[in-house]
């Protein structure tokens, strides 16, 4: 893939977040990676979305050193680069403060798989990280944020493409996907799923997740070699 | 009715769901039946709504065998066909994951008839099916989903045109009607009724349904031979 | 005032309800009265809002007998006419099934005066009627709906212009005002006030109303001879 | 700064409140101050937003005496002028009845710092004033409203630019900032933060605020000499 195409895709993913009401002002960022060249394209920090053009996207190496662009990259860059280094299967990362997903993060609660909408996209609960220690917050904070996500997925042996999102405790969600469009799509669905989980839990506080059988059926209807959804193959 | 008109009506019903905010991306589908020819027209699977044209609609027989169209039909086809076979009075089926109706389905709760808005459209609670067994989920799942609806209505002797909607446990609502426009209209009203039921129950958890007298008065004001609402006879 | 102007005002009030998201499909109606001629102008029943023109408005006498127009008047006409007969100070009536006001009506709960937004428009709680008896529902139901409102205001000595709205138990709100624009405005503010009351009560269930002093201060800032709000006088 | 520019900025701040859905009809007002000339520019009372032009803005001295303009200033003027006199670091004031911030004010609850979205803008909880006494309400009410805010900040030694908002008990929020755009921006973010705090507290009633370390990290990432967010410096 040409870097020019990646710039366009990353911009488009950022704009999709705005169109779907997931970001207020500049509260969000999307990036994508070119795995062949090991280059990351990310939104610049604090620039208005309606002024963003492909050439404003910042290009960095996998460690976050800027290699192209005059603007400063998103202040969450170090979380993005860590996720790319540690989750080799992902092609894009999206961070938003979308209302309901953020509300679960603020409550320190994971989002249980309460229905098939969830199961179509997330093969199990969307986890929440433990709170960061004061030392981690006072140290390499943005890096530590990514580390909390990666450690959680490793310890619980979760495949990042099977559960392409994580809530950071007291903060907000990070999502990812195979490419920028997919990551933005997952962020939009996460917010819808979070909203319905909120409704379900406030209506019936002890609601339980769907059965493993239903989780399997819906997830594998949309993913993997036996997927039957859509016009694909 | 010509099949061409049915294609247009089914497309229009699908678009009405989008306009009213009931579907996110491709999460929904509407179909209609020509009872004379026993042919069903249904939305294709996973195609963007803004690209949909009448000629993209898929035509199947009453058992779901495609007889016209190059696209794959909605993955929920087997639920639609079963409802058409078992509910001979209905002319169209609509499935959405609309937020509040889905939240009740996720909570495994029926929607009680808490007010006249509900009573104008649904002559009694909107039921929720029992959870499917693992065997049903692992077997002909989409067919079993329809069977759970049909069995519930049979066992409780509910006329499907008097209560033109059902929540599938842990999943989402299915609605129907005498034609595609009517089914989509019922899906839109169901969501409004579900939202107000959510508000009512979170405000006053032990809220009871309206009296049978009020249910009768409102339902028969809009339906049946003594209807007085609207300009029609 | 010419009847032609009243038709235009009543149409405009109906459209304001749509613009502000208070009505779904045809769930709502507004009317106005010409007190000199004792003629009422009301929306026809079940006609799409985007087709409504001033000439579609139906004109009736104070007892609801149609004197002009080929369309059937709103099915809630008898509530409107009763309110005009019993509340001589009002010039217009609006009925909606707006989401949050209707949710309070469904819960059988009045809307307490929890803040100054409420106090600016409603001089005390917005009451809810007692449930209608089966006999009233089975009898002149629409008339009885109006009677429940009027009886409540009489028994509690509430001035209908000081509290220009009432929730009908298990049904929805009726609002009114000095003219059609004012009644529609009150319906829009009622919904905003109901939404904030819902939030307040779900956040802190035992929330109490504002003090009489604050109610007086805000209400009389906008109403009566010492009003200081706006550019008037 | 020329007064003409301030008029334009204040108008633009008022319009931003409308665009972001923070005001219904005329429920809101923004003002700005020229600290060199000690002149305040404020929205007129009760004028429709879509008719507002820069020349409609009212100019007063720091005590609220109108020095330019034919329209009456906002009825909340005395709160604005007091805040300008007592908080010399602020350049603009915004008052809205935005839904969720007002709901907290009605519940008499402060908004705890539950997440990083809050911490990015408000260095600690957004406080709520104690209820006004009947004497204060019956006296110089609008002035007393400002006094309740100022007294709270003084007693608790809160820097008004570090926490640029306060909820007035039983009423609604007042926000401020270094200029009109900043104050409006703070009002928009306050509403988003209030909405997420509402969700968090209804999901998990005993939710606690973020740690002091996280509050420090996020607040000082966006404010002060070591800010790293945006393209600034």
TrEMBL record, chains A, B, C, D:
GO terms, biological process: pentose catabolic process
Matching InterPro entries: Aldolase_class_II_sugar_metab, Aldolase_II/adducin_N, Aldolase_II/adducin_N_sf
Enzyme class: isomerase
Pfam families documented for this protein: Aldolase_II
Co-factor(s): Zn(2+)
GO MF annotation list: aldehyde-lyase activity; L-ribulose-phosphate 4-epimerase activity; metal ion binding
NCBIfam families: PRK08193.1
PANTHER family linked to this entry: FUCULOSE PHOSPHATE ALDOLASE, L-RIBULOSE-5-PHOSPHATE 4-EPIMERASE SGBE
Family to which the UniProt record says this protein belongs: Belongs to the aldolase class II family. AraD/FucA subfamily.
Protein name: L-ribulose-5-phosphate 4-epimerase
